[in-house]
């Protein structure tokens, strides 16, 4: 059976524009989730490294829970549970419904929390990779904690963290496909609609796979360039 490539055109009968828009939504929700995960991961890593006993326990519990339960459950909790939370506070304040939470917000928050657990371990490992002599030398020359963090810890830790953060970014892109259960029109949702409308599921799911592959391939190139830039002036071997 032949394939009608006009289905991917940008004409009135083609699915090109909506697929392109859906790919943009995929990148957007993944980026928001990754940035949120970076903030959370940094705070959790700090709690594990320099926090008191209770902060370390809370941080450890967070990473254990978020890395141990299915991602889809976290998304459901934020999407459906988020409605209930909004309704509870809305009614308490005397507000009238309906109360809803967008699939984009729920997906970004859920994936951000999931990504934060992974990024916390990346940041923690990167910090411990810094030679102790470097930190001792910074202390000897009179650097305060903030100056040491900005001038010594961040530059050296990020150099080590970039590959791991790249993996977390790629994971966020793939996890974004699960957000389709909220009704958000991203790549996975759109190819499901297209396959159902045209009765060509194999073709459109293959197109969806290509879209994700293009996004991750471009991302991999950017990550490698960032890694090379961070290692400028140093000797390293290209794998």
TrEMBL record:
Alphabetized Gene3D superfamilies for the sequence: MetI-like
GO BP terms, alphabetized: amino acid transport
Classification via PROSITE patterns: ABC_TM1
Gene Ontology cellular-component terms listed: ATP-binding cassette (ABC) transporter complex
Residues covered by the ABC transmembrane type-1 domain: 23-223
Residue intervals passing through the bilayer: 20-47, 59-81, 101-123, 202-223
Source organism superkingdom: Bacteria
UniProt subcellular location: Cell inner membrane; Cell membrane
Primary site of residence: membrane
CDD domains: TM_PBP2
A molecular-function term among this protein's GO annotations: transmembrane transporter activity
Keywords for this protein: Amino-acid transport, Cell inner membrane, Cell membrane, Membrane, Transmembrane, Transmembrane helix, Transport
Topology within the bilayer: Multi-pass membrane protein
Family assignment from sequence similarity: Belongs to the binding-protein-dependent transport system permease family. HisMQ subfamily.
PANTHER family documented for this protein: ARGININE ABC TRANSPORTER PERMEASE PROTEIN ARTQ, CATIONIC AMINO ACID TRANSPORTER, MEMBRANE COMPONENT
UniProt name for this protein: Octopine ABC transporter, permease protein
Organism in which the protein naturally occurs: Erwinia billingiae (strain Eb661)
Gene this chain is encoded by: occQ
